[in-house]
Structures are given as structure tokens and as C-alpha cells.
């Protein structure tokens, strides 16, 4: 069914969400439209229930029609709005970066819970030096710069366009993040600093291309594939590269923290242990999936 809206009358909430049901389940369609109206037009659910959609002016109505057209084509609402919620803040996003996920915010909480302790022996008098590899929107780096006590955060990405988005997010929240252009798969010896960091964290690409068939079209059609996929034959490509770099760049007893593909959690755990990493721990996300790995670096 094709939905068309007249510019001479207002659109009801029911019309809006029902026009998305070919793309979304009804409950999700309602949530998407509510997010659009709340963040894009500052209309609360109470406003919507009271019929305040009818009070939108011509310019706002045309903008709403444009946004709805993009949603009906499958574009994620976060890209339509240009921002996404993460760890209690609204981050700028563009189609150059992945939309931040709630699971990734859980990784940030694992780190802050681990280190933000009064008189913690893990927290030295000097700042904790943190590196976020593959920063994307900068959601991890900015969150840790703001929420991890006494920290000094750097963030790498392979793309200059991506780093521009991360820079704008750092500026938006007045977070001090040192942004650098690096390809972790092609690092030169000069780019690997010895014993430079207390924490190296990453949410690298980890979805095998063969898993595409199970993914939603709005992810495949709109989110950057470079940040999503790895070759089928090398599912741990980025983890191996980052862990090997981290062997040189982490201080003694420094922490390596990954978001992971649950399908390869045990394999990655065993590989890290074989490589000499200590206290290799798998952590579950809110949905009970093996989503994170933490490991400690010891000089060998």
C-alpha cells in the first residue's frame, strides 16, 4: 500500500505510523514515529495524544512529509534526524558512521564500573590513557572522556570523514579527545607507541558477509559496510590486529576491551589466552549474549 499525504491537511499519528508498517512491525513503527516527533519536532506523547500535530505550520508539515518519505524508503530514523541517543547523550550521526547501539554503551559502563572507584589501586595519580580504535561517531571515546575519571582519551579511525563526525561530537559535549587518522591493519612501526596506554578499547567490524542474509534491509542499505563487515574467512581479522598492536602499546597490566560477535566469543577467548593475555573474561550484554571480552596485558 502506498501512502500519500495532502499538504492541505495535517497528518494524524495513526496515519504516520501505519504508513511505516510495510517496513516495520506496528509496535516498532509507533516507536519510530514517536522518536521522530519527539526529537525532530519537540512533541511529547501527551502533545501527540492531544492533537498538537494539527498545529504544525506549513514549513514543519513539509519537513515532516520529507522525513516520513525517507523513513518509508527504509532510512533509519537516526539518520533522518541526524542524531542518535547513546549513554544518556544525543550524538550527531551521518551515513559515514554506524548508528551507536545500546550494547556499546554497556561496554563503556563496564570500563567506568571497573575504574571509577574511590581510592582505586587501578587508578594511578596520573591520567588513565585510553585509546579507542575505530571510533566512528566517537561515541565510545567521548563517553569515556566525560565519564571515566581522570582519563586522557585518543581515538583512531581509517576515514577522515568519520573523524569529522567524531570531532563534532567531541565539540558538542566539550570532551577532550585526541583524534588521529590510522589504519590498524596497516600500521607502521612509527605509529605503534610502546607502553602508551592503560586501556585500549574497540568495537571493530565483526559481521561476516555471509550473515548479510539475516540482516535488516535498512542496515544493509544505509549503514557503512566498511564499519560492519569482515571477510567470511577472517572473522577475527581486526581483533588479531588490535591485540597484536596492544601487546606493544598497553602498559603492564593494561586492559584490552572488545565488543565482539557472539558467534566467535569462545574462539577469540582461546586465541587471546594462547597469545599470553591474562584474565580473559567474556561478559554478557543485557540480552544474555556473549558481547564483550576484557583481557589484561602482562610483560612476558
Automatic annotation (TrEMBL):
Gene3D superfamilies: DNA helicase RuvA subunit, C-terminal domain (1.10.8.10), Vaccinia Virus protein VP39 (3.40.50.150)
Pfam families found in the cross-reference section: MTS, PrmC_N
Catalysed reaction equations from the record: L-glutaminyl-[peptide chain release factor] + S-adenosyl-L-methionine = N(5)-methyl-L-glutaminyl-[peptide chain release factor] + S-adenosyl-L-homocysteine + H(+)
Keywords: Methyltransferase, S-adenosyl-L-methionine, Transferase
Domain Release factor glutamine methyltransferase N-terminal residue range list: 27-82
An example Gene Ontology biological process: methylation
E.C. numbers: 2.1.1.297
Molecular-function GO terms, alphabetical: nucleic acid binding; peptide chain release factor N(5)-glutamine methyltransferase activity
Domain Methyltransferase small: start-end pairs: 128-211
The keyword Chloroplast is assigned to this record: no
Cited CDD domains: AdoMet_MTases
Keyword Transferase attributed: yes
Protein name as catalogued: peptide chain release factor N(5)-glutamine methyltransferase
Amino acid at each position: 500500500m502506498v501512502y500519500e499525504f495532502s499538504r492541505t491537511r495535517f497528518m494524524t499519528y495513526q496515519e504516520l505510523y501505519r504508513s511505516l508498517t510495510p517496513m516495520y512491525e506496528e509496535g516498532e513503527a509507533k516507536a519510530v514515529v514517536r522518536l521522530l516527533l519527539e526529537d525532530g519536532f519537540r512533541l511529547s506523547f501527551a502533545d501527540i495524544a492531544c492533537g498538537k500535530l494539527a498545529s504544525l505550520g506549513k514549513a514543519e508539515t513539509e519537513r515532516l512529509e520529507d522525513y516520513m518519505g525517507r523513513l518509508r524508503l527504509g532510512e533509519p530514523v537516526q539518520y533522518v534526524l541526524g542524531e542518535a541517543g547513546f549513554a544518556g547523550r544525543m550524538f550527531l550521526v551521518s551515513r559515514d558512521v554506524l548508528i551507536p547501539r545500546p550494547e556499546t554503551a554497556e561496554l563503556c559502563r563496564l570500563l567506568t564500573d571497573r575504574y571509577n572507584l574511590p581510592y582505586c589501586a587501578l587508578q594511578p595519580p596520573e591520567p588513565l590513557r585510553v585509546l579507542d580504535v575505530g571510533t566512528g561517531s566517537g561515541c565510545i571515546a567521548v563517553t569515556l572522556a566525560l565519564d571515566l575519571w581522570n582519563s586522557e582519551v585518543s581515538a583512531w579511525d581509517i576515514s577522515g570523514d568519520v573523524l569529522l563526525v567524531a570531532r563534532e561530537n567531541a565539540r558538542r559535549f566539550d570532551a577532550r579527545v585526541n583524534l588521529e587518522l590510522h589504519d590498524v591493519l596497516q600500521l607502521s612501526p612509527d605509529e605503534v607507541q610502546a607502553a602508551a596506554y592503560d586501556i585500549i578499547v574497540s568495537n571493530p567490524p565483526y559481521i561476516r558477509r555471509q550473515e548479510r542474509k539475516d540482516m535488516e534491509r535498512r542496515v544493509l542499505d544505509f549503514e557503512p559496510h566498511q564499519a560492519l563487515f569482515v571477510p567470511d574467512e577472517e572473522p577475527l581479522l581486526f581483533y588479531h590486529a588490535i591485540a597484536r598492536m596492544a601487546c606493544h602499546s598497553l602498559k603492564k597490566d593494561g586492559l584490552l576491551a572488545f565488543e565482539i560477535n557472539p558467534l566467535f566469543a569462545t574462539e577469540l577467548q582461546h586465541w587471546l589466552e594462547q597469545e599470553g593475555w591474562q584474565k580473559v573474561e567474556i561478559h554478557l550484554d543485557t540480552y544474555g549474549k556473549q558481547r564483550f571480552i576484557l583481557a589484561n596485558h602482562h610483560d612476558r
